[in-house]
Design brief:
F420_OxRdatse_Rv3520c_pred; TIM Barrel; LLM class F420-dependent oxidoreductase; oxidoreductase activity, acting on paired donors, with incorporation or reduction of molecular oxygen; alpha/beta; globular; eight-stranded parallel β-barrel; oxidoreductase
Length: 345
């Protein structure tokens, strides 16, 4: 099992220690560094900036939001980063949710599975550079022929020859249909809130995708990158307490009451009652009570806190469950260096 560093997306200000952590991750034997985006910082620029100080680690987006840019633009970002890094880019994509897609990007959220499939298809056509790119996609038709079209649109190939036509595309997916499609059309799955005890359920969804006609990969060459908080500490209770606030935000505030993909993931884990209580409290503005309502086991299902022996044992559970990369979030370079004996085991 490999290890990746998840930088995430920025808060109110850029992080002050990310560059140090990226270099430390490479020195510690990490395989990759990932950056995210939400509705502030973008996912590509940090990788180009901080990644320029590295020589080996792969540089991935986890995730770049589909609605933030057209598929042709995403392909341009990816092929540019791939050239600058000498073939180290991973294009991680995800649909986000309706609050962001419609509220921030001003686009419809409907039919996310179809949009994902069509988006990936166009990106692959750009990277293949075999012919001028055309698509009859409903959302991303090329050339554009919809309202306001001049009729002068021309199919094009990228001016720059992509370094790798097979640049890996990983997809962030949470629901069963999306995970199955990811196994069918992508090179890897960016799994959020992965619980090793539910590996059998995930594998059923993945196997459905692998079995589809024309599936791109098999389990043997498909990557599963599971995001997790992993902290070597003698005070796991303090880390769990810190995570209550973050977890309650994602369960109660990162999505609408009618549609919150993160909350649905935890319900599939068996936390229906707890999710409903946390969501109700958070929406009522009772955020401290919402955080207090998050049970320890809901956090420790998808995170690892403890001394080195405990962390080592738990990492083995993730690996045995089929995870090929632990995508780890840490607070500073010192905490990252504490993981080095586990990364290089």
């Amino acid at each position: 099992m490999k290890f990746g560093l998840q930088l995430g997306y920025w808060g109110a200000q850029p992080p002050t220690n990310a560059g140090e952590m990226v270099v430390a991750a490479e020195e510690a034997g990490f395989d990759a560094v990932f950056a995210a985006e939400s509705w502030g910082s973008d996912a590509f620029t940090p990788l180009a900036w901080w990644g320029s100080a590295t020589q080996r680690v792969r540089l991935g987006t986890s995730v770049a939001q589909l609605s933030a840019r057209t598929p042709a633009a995403a392909a341009m970002h990816a092929l540019t980063l791939d050239h600058l890094s000498g073939g180290r880019a991973i294009l991680g994509l995800g649909v986000s949710g309706p609050q962001v897609v419609e509220g921030w990007y001003g686009q419809p959220f409907a039919q996310p599975l179809r949009r994902t499939r069509e988006y990936v298809d166009i990106v692959r056509k750009v990277l293949a550079r075999e012919a001028p790119v055309t698509s009859d996609s409903q959302a991303y038709g090329l050339p554009y022929t919809g309202p306001g079209a001049t009729g002068l649109g021309k199919p094009l190939k990228p001016i720059v020859h992509p370094l790798r036509a097979d640049l890996p595309i990983w997809l962030g997916a949470e629901g069963p249909k999306n995970i199955a499609q990811t196994a069918e059309i992508a090179d890897g799955w960016l799994a959020i809130y992965y619980a090793p005890r539910l590996a059998g359920m995930y594998n059923e969804w993945l196997d459905e995708g692998f079995a589809r006609p024309g599936a791109r990969r098999s389990r043997a060459d498909f990557e599963i990158a599971a995001s997790a908080q992993v902290v070597v500490t003698d005070d796991p209770a303090a880390e769990i307490e810190r995570m209550r606030w973050v977890t309650s935000l994602y369960i109660g505030g990162m999505g609408a009451p009618e549609l919150n993909f993160h909350a649905q993931v935890y319900k599939r884990m068996g936390y229906d009652k707890e999710v409903d209580e946390i969501s109700a409290l958070f929406r009522a503005g009772r955020k401290a009570e919402a955080a207090a309502a998050v049970p320890d086991e809901l956090i420790t299902d998808t995170a690892i806190f403890g001394d080195e022996a405990h962390v080592r044992t738990r990492l083995r559970e993730w690996e045995d469950a089929g995870v090929t990369m632990m995508l780890i979030s840490v607070s500073d370079a010192e905490q990252l260096r504490r993981l080095q004996p586990l990364v290089t085991r």
